[in-house]
Design brief:
Elements lengths: L20 H4 L2 H6 L3 E7 L4 E2 L4 E13 L2 E12 L3 H6 L4 E4 L8 E5 L6 E7 L4 E9 L6 H14 L7
Antiparallel strand pairs: 1-3, 2-3, 3-4, 4-8, 5-6, 6-7, 7-8
Protein name: DUF3558 domain-containing protein
InterPro entries: DUF3558
Organism: Nocardia callitridis
Length: 162
């Protein structure tokens, strides 16, 4: 890992989230999915709410083609939530419930965040979630949702010790 990071949040729940994506997702995997490992930073959305715990990491990429600038943000989190949380919460619109990388999974959108698509897979902690945000937001996020599935398949290999 190329950058120095603050530690994961202090957890107060009896069952601790063990997988820290900022430590467990290697630079090689981040590069393989097209993001800059040097942009690695703690997720602003991580923490222990007393109800659930999320440990996360963020990565960025920028591109310019034919005078058009685009940027993407990738949030990678490990949580003690389960997939039913995403299926049952009205804030999420589930697009697919097909397995990803051999794990039960859901691919979903959050309508109040129109420029992103996410996928969550079952993990030893509960869920491993990848959220891809694209700026400026395309009119159709189908390609972003396809890309988040591919990214999730690659990054979820970090969950399995080699």
């Amino acid at each position: 890992m190329q950058v120095s990071l603050p530690p994961a949040p202090v957890q107060t729940r009896a069952k601790q989230v063990q997988f820290d994506p900022c430590v467990g997702v290697g630079d090689d995997l981040v590069t393989r999915v097209g993001f800059d490992p040097g942009s690695r930073e703690r997720s602003v959305a991580e923490g222990d709410t007393g109800t659930f715990t999320t440990i996360g990491c963020q990565f960025w990429r920028e591109a310019s083609e034919n005078g058009q600038y685009s940027a993407s943000g990738l949030s990678v989190t490990s949580s003690d939530l389960n997939l039913d949380h995403y299926r049952a919460t009205p804030d999420f619109v589930v697009l697919h419930s097909d397995p990803i990388g051999g794990h039960d999974a859901v691919t979903y959108r959050t309508p109040r965040v129109p420029n992103s698509c996410a996928a969550s897979t079952e993990s030893p902690d509960g869920t491993f979630t990848i959220d891809l945000s694209v700026f400026p937001a395309p009119a159709d996020l189908t390609s972003a949702c396809d890309e988040v599935r591919r990214i999730t398949e690659t990054l979820s290999t970090a969950l399995t010790p080699s």
